[in-house]
Specification:
Layout lengths: L1 H36 L4 H6 L3 H4 L5 H9 L2 H22 L5 E11 L4 E13 L5 H67 L5 H35 L23 H10 L2 H22 L6 E9 L4 E9 L5 H68 L5 H35 L9
Antiparallel strand pairs: 1-2, 2-3, 3-4
């Protein structure tokens, strides 16, 4: 009986040793796989490299090429060419020289005679009252608006590239985390299957691990689909730009600018293409209003003429002048142009406030996302420590497989959260620098 008891105890200890070995292997694999796809500790954060140096963003030359080939930018450039042509027309003015020819016949009764007569006149309206200078100023404002519209289009396309790039990077990180989790589940299920065959593990443990394997496989399939969709959209919108290669294990955000938030806000607004375009359109509307108001003073049309009468017996040369009589239409047009200028001023103010609010959202969001990324990095370090302690407890028989699976899932979730938080912070940081024209500045 004692021999049987000792044999049972020996078998139990052997089973425990087998379980401990398997669990130690599982936990070690979990930690190593999660480290490969996971985040950084706070120490690694402080010692990491900058995003530009890590190659997180696409090369600037490739971005410049993609922006130049964008249909939106090409459409804006074509519209600018049209605007430049219209500006030349405004500067030249609408006044054109006109040639007038009149042919007539004269019949005299007594004595009965017939004469061929005719008149040739050259006439041209004059731009007086400072209208030529006003047209030149209006043309300059029109050219400026056309140029700024192209710059704004380039900046908007750069924003689109940045957004799609980080969306693909975020999906890539989610897929990498899901793949690491699935690989671990598959390895643990394989080890448990061998132990069940050897009689060292319960069949229920194997079934739990098979269910866990199915869950991780489903999550991996979903993550792969999301990654493929994000990359497909990036390739379709900007062919030749490529896709993100992944996020390095060690990367840190660049330090925030030394300027105060108020100074950055002012620079953000003043350097905004949209705000500058609204300013230019306001100036254009004001100059158009001034030019339209000058039309309330009509322009004379002067000319010279040469007339032949009585078959050439009489020749007449003279000068002509014509002056339109202004009507209520001119006054109404001037009032409408002044109202348009007022509307443009209100629109500029609205754009200024909206862009200022956009900066506040972006800047405060960046501060929060940086703090979240740091906190997630520290949480990952603590979660790894908890996983190690759970492994030791499982080895000592103080906890079961269910607790180990819970800890492993928590570690996988924390790893994904840390990676996503880092990508979010990097995107917010890059977006702020892009809008401040400290990266991808293609105004030339």
């Amino acid at each position: 009986m004692k021999s049987a008891t000792r044999s049972a105890k020996g078998a139990t200890k052997g089973a425990m040793r087998g379980i401990a070995a398997a669990s130690a292997f599982a936990v070690a694999t979990a930690v190593s796989l999660m480290a490969a796809t996971g985040g950084m500790t706070s120490t690694a954060w402080a010692q990491a490299i900058r995003p530009a140096e890590a190659g997180i963003l696409p090369p600037e030359a490739a971005v410049r090429e993609a922006v130049g080939q964008s249909p939106d930018v090409q459409m804006a450039e074509a519209h600018r060419d049209a605007v430049l042509a219209r500006a030349d027309g405004i500067r030249a003015g609408t006044a054109e020289a006109m040639v007038r020819a009149i042919g007539q016949g004269r019949q005299v009764r007594e004595p009965s005679e017939r004469y061929a007569e005719g008149q040739l006149a050259l006439e041209r309206p004059l731009r007086l009252w400072g209208k030529a200078d006003a047209d030149g100023a209006l043309a300059d404002a029109t050219v400026q608006s056309g140029q700024l519209a192209v710059m704004d289009a380039r900046h908007e396309v750069s924003r689109q590239i940045l957004s799609l790039w980080f969306a693909a990077l975020r999906a890539q990180q989610a897929r990498a985390a899901a793949q690491g989790n699935d690989s671990l589940a598959a390895e643990l299920a394989s080890v448990t299957a061998r132990r069940v065959q050897a009689g060292d593990a319960a069949r229920m443990d194997h079934e739990l691990l098979l269910a866990e394997r199915s869950r991780t496989a489903a999550a991996l399939a979903s993550a792969r689909a999301a990654e493929a969709a994000a990359q497909a959209e990036l390739r379709a919108r900007f062919p030749g730009l490529g896709v993100p290669g992944g996020l390095p294990a060690e990367v840190r955000l660049q330090a925030l600018p030394d300027d105060s938030a108020d100074a950055l806000r002012l620079r953000y607004v003043e350097d905004s293409h949209e705000f500058r375009l609204a300013q230019s359109e306001e100036m254009q509307a004001q100059r158009q209003a001034r030019r339209t108001d000058l039309e309330r003073k009509p322009d004379p049309t002067v000319g010279v003429f040469f007339t032949v009468e009585r078959g050439g017996a009489e020749r007449i040369a003279g000068v002509s002048i014509a002056m339109p009589l202004g009507s209520a239409h001119r006054r109404s047009s001037a009032m409408a142009a002044a109202a348009d200028a007022e509307a443009a001023a209100r629109r500029r103010l609205s754009v200024e406030r909206r862009i200022g609010a956009e900066f506040e959202v972006l800047y405060r969001g960046l501060e929060g996302k940086r703090a979240a990324a740091t906190a997630q990095s520290e949480a990952l370090a603590l979660q790894r420590s908890a996983a190690a302690r759970t492994g030791r407890a499982y080895k000592a028989g103080e906890t079961g497989l269910s607790e180990l699976l819970i800890i492993r899932r928590a570690l996988a979730d924390t790893t994904l959260a840390e990676r996503v938080a880092m990508v979010d912070a990097l995107e917010a940081d890059s977006r702020l620098r892009l809008d401040l024209h400290r990266m991808w500045d293609f105004d030339d």
